[in-house]
Design a protein that fits this description.
The chain has about 500 residues and is of the alpha/beta class. The protein has three domains: about 140 residues, Cobalamin-binding domain (Rossmann fold); about 260 residues, TIM Barrel; about 70 residues. About 45% of the residues lie in helices and about 15% in strands.
């Protein structure tokens, strides 16, 4: 049996880093971890091929080679996935849909031959068995939340790692919190299921032996959801592994803001090689936080929490949302002021959306406030809710926030505030890769000579060189990301939201 695994295109999105990829000569930010993991669940005698359409084109020859085309996608890949399905149908090839897209809105895909929904560890084996016997049904779904100790290593041999800026891995699923707009606790549960420390080390070994040196994104929705296990088992194992090999990898992940309350945990993360965390702050407005169930964020001084994390050697990226019912008319200026004061260089501000299955979706559906279309991206000026403040007011305010925070003057001011606070963990020195030198030279030309941010770029670069020279690489990376987010914001603001 021949199976073609296809990752559809994302298009230009906030997190695809399209404009940043130009500086580092890469084709995509991250590989399709879900498909690579699923690939290891197929029988050994199957022939497999993987096409990531964010890296290379899907050809008719690829489709014609396969007996079945397996499509794994997120909601933001919906349009591309539908085109792939149509091409396969026209060529007489059977399709199998799985992943978050098909699991959350399966009714949108009547032309898919088979749907394997929810977590693959529970649903895929039955489908493969029936397919082998010639009696496969159309839909396979399981509410069983699998034990991740049984999840296999991703099949990294199916991709060319050199085409991506970072690798990725998963340690756990689920989140102890229950924010009303979030699907994670609905789909994966409020308990945290995790891999064993031995599995984590095996995945790090796989990266190391494949020759990967650089960043690895641990994609958990809340890496510290089971704080006790992370502190006692996982991080000590990662620290030992890193020290034995002189820190070949660096990590980033998603955490909750209550990380700031645990000095020991912040220290362990930095010692293990983490240098960046993404935090869902959502709003500086306490009424909005309380309304959406974000109790862990109801701290009297969120700005100080952010700075505490930065001082422990962890760069903070943060997510923010506008459009809560409790948002006051001044929320847009409040968001801008908070982002600037906290020194969060990379701030993802999005419109509130209500994903199917969430408590927010159910409430707004009862109130008749659900619009039909949801793009799967909350940073494109589109929402599937009818906001209390009015759609035009919300979209105009959102445009103002994004336009303001990524103006060079404001962005570089935040980078400066961050660099003043940031105290990275001292790791063994290693030679700077040529790709990083080339990226720096491109910033000199694109940002320092041609860019309208050139004055801010040179002033801050000189400040770093004379005051914090150990942070030159950090500054260059942030300058590149800031350019991407400004260009992305300008690209969609030149159009009109749906």
């Amino acid at each position: 049996m021949k199976a073609l695994l296809v990752c559809p295109e994302y298009g230009n999105d906030f997190w695809t880093f399209d404009y940043a990829l130009e500086f580092v000569s890469k084709q995509a930010d991250q590989p399709p971890l879900g498909l690579l993991t699923v690939a290891s669940m197929f029988p050994a005698d199957w022939e497999l091929k993987l096409v990531d359409m964010n890296v290379t084109a899907l050809t008719d020859e690829d489709i014609g080679w396969a007996d079945y085309v397996f499509i794994g996608a997120m909601v933001a890949q919906r349009d591309s996935a539908k085109k792939v399905i149509a091409r396969c149908r026209d060529m007489g090839r059977k399709t199998v849909g799985g992943g978050w897209l098909f699991s959350t809105i399966p009714g949108e895909f009547p032309d898919v031959d088979h749907l394997v929904l929810n977590e693959a560890e529970s649903s895929l084996p039955s489908f493969i068995k029936d397919l082998t016997l010639g009696c496969a049904k159309r839909i396979y779904s399981s509410d069983t939340r699998p034990d991740l100790s049984l999840t296999p290593l991703p099949r990294w041999s199916l991709i060319d790692m050199s085409r991506y800026t970072i690798m990725n891995m998963q340690y756990s699923r689920g989140c102890p919190f229950n924010c009303d707009f979030c699907q994670v606790s609905v789909v994966h549960g409020r308990g945290t299921r995790a891999k064993t420390p031995a599995q984590v080390i095996a995945e790090l070994d796989a990266f190391y032996h494949a020759g990967w040196r650089g960043a690895v994104f641990i994609v958990d929705d809340n890496f510290i959801g089971n704080r006790k296990a992370v502190k006692a088992e996982v991080l000590p194992a990662m620290i030992s592994w890193q020290k034995e090999r002189r820190y070949p990898l660096e990590f980033l992940t998603q955490v909750s803001i209550d990380l700031a309350d645990d000095r020991q945990l912040m220290g362990l993360l930095a010692e293990a090689g983490f240098n960046l965390v993404l935090i869902g702050i959502e709003s500086p407005n306490r009424e909005s936080l309380a309304q959406c169930g974000k109790s862990q964020n109801l701290h009297p001084d969120l700005v100080e929490q952010v700075k505490s994390i930065q001082r422990h050697g962890l760069e903070t990226m943060a997510g923010f949302i506008v459009g809560f019912d409790a948002d006051p008319p001044a929320i847009f200026r409040q968001q801008i002021d908070f982002i600037q004061q906290s020194g969060i260089p990379i701030a993802m501000v999005g419109l509130l959306n209500a994903p199917p299955g969430t408590r927010l979706y159910r409430r707004l559906e009862e109130e008749g406030r659900i619009r039909e279309y949801a793009s799967g991206s909350n940073t494109d000026g589109v929402t599937n809710i009818v906001p209390k403040m009015g759609l035009d007011t919300l979209v105009d305010g959102y445009r103002l926030v994004m336009r303001t925070i990524y103006e060079p003057q404001n962005f570089y001011a935040r980078v400066w505030r961050f660099l003043k606070e940031f105290r990275p963990y001292h790791r063994p020195w290693r030679m700077v890769p040529f790709r990083d030198i080339a990226a720096f030279l491109r910033t000199v030309w694109r940002l320092g000579i041609r860019g309208r941010e050139r004055g801010y770029y040179w002033r801050l670069l000189l400040w770093v060189l004379f005051r914090r020279p150990e942070l030159v690489a950090t500054f260059i990376a942030l300058a590149i990301k800031g350019y991407h987010f400004r260009m992305f914001t300008e690209s969609w603001q030149s159009g009109s939201p749906a």
